Amino acid sequence: MRRIGLLTMALVLALGSLGVAYAAWTDEITIEGTVNTGSVELNVVDYSGSAIYKDLETDEMVSWHGWMGDDPYADDANYWPVASASARAGEGDEADIVVSFENAFPCETLMADFLLHYNGSVPAKLYAEVTDVTGDQALIDNLDVQFMAWHVLPGYVHGEDDIHDFLGDPVDVGVQVHECDRILVAMTIHLPQDNDLMNLEGSFEAMIQAIQWNEYQEGAGFYPYNG
Predict the structure, then answer these.
(1) In the chain, domain spans
(2) How far is it, in rounded angstroms, from Cα 92 to Cα 206?
(3) Residues 6+ away with beta carbon under 8 Å from 205
(4) Residue 174 has pLDDT above 70, yes or no
(5) pTM, two decimal places
(6) Angle at the Cα of 188 from the Cα atoms of 184 and 190, rounded to 5 degrees
(7) Distance CA 46, CA 32 (A)
(8) What is the pLDDT of residue 225?
(9) CA geometry: angle at 208 spanning 204 and 36, to 5°?
(10) What is the Cα–Cα distance from 223 to 227, expressed in whole angstroms?
(11) Cβ burial, residue 183 (10 Å; 0-12/13-18/19+)
(12) How far lies 24's CA from each of 21, 190, 207, in Å?
């Protein structure tokens, strides 16, 4: 009997040293997970422009501003085209938006608008600036380029309503945009009365950037370029 007892004890010790468990109860909960990332996405919905005409019957100046392609004076022989601002989508290696200010003259502001749709799932703040101006130095020194932006209120139907009746608060430093917000951005140029600015040419680069709201650096915003 003693030998049997010693043998049983030895077997238990041997099995214990191998890490074998006896009659262990177990239970488990399984987990399946998914991960998706958010987005910061800014799209251009439409473009507008402006034009200045001379009324050939009255000699008066007539100004027009609206969505590209809607100019009622463009094909009217009674109105002589003098100056214009236009915007369109870029193609190929061009920028996303191409803006042209043609035949600008002093004391009159030419304006091109972009209707933007913010489709990002992460709230953002907008930043805009003119980064570079090249061309004749006199034009560079006197060219006043500015950005202005407004929230478009809910209820606006593009193509049916006058967007100016639906402009809400300005989008400025510290103002957030959220998914499905629409923003109207106006880009304007203005020249002072100076004979030295005739027959000059120049070009500029600019950007409108959406930055996730929690990484936005205080002080960025919609800034003018003043030479």
Answers:
(1) 42-226
(2) 18
(3) 95, 130, 131, 132
(4) no
(5) 0.77
(6) 165
(7) 43
(8) 38
(9) 145
(10) 13
(11) buried
(12) 6, 84, 66
pLDDT in tens, 53-83: 999 999 999 999 999 989 999 999 999 999 9
pLDDT in tens, 92-135: 888 999 999 999 998 888 999 999 999 999 999 888 888 788 89
Structure tokens at 76: 């009217």
Residue with tokens 């091109």: 112
DSSP letters along the chain, please? -HHHHHHHHHHHHHHHHTT--SS------------------EEEEEEEEEEEEEETTT--EEEEEEETT--TTTT-TTEEEEEEEEEEE--TTS-SEEEEEES--TT--EEEEEEEEE--SS-EEEEEEEEEEEE-HHHHHH-EEEEEEEEEPTT--TTTS-GGGGEEEE--TT-EE-TT-EEEEEEEEE--S-GGGTT--EEEEEEEEEEEGGGPPTT-SB--EE-
> Tokens 């077997």 belong to which residue?
11
116 DSSP β-pair partners: 44, 183
Instruction: Answer yes or no: is pLDDT of 218 > 70.
Output: no
Average pLDDT, whole number, for the chain?
A: 85
Amino acid at 92: G
Give the length of the chain.
227
Hey, what amino acid is at 148? M
Query: Positive or negative, the Cα torsion across 47, 163, 84, 136?
Result: negative
User: Which candidate, 166, 146, 180, places its Cα nearest to that of 45?
Assistant: 180
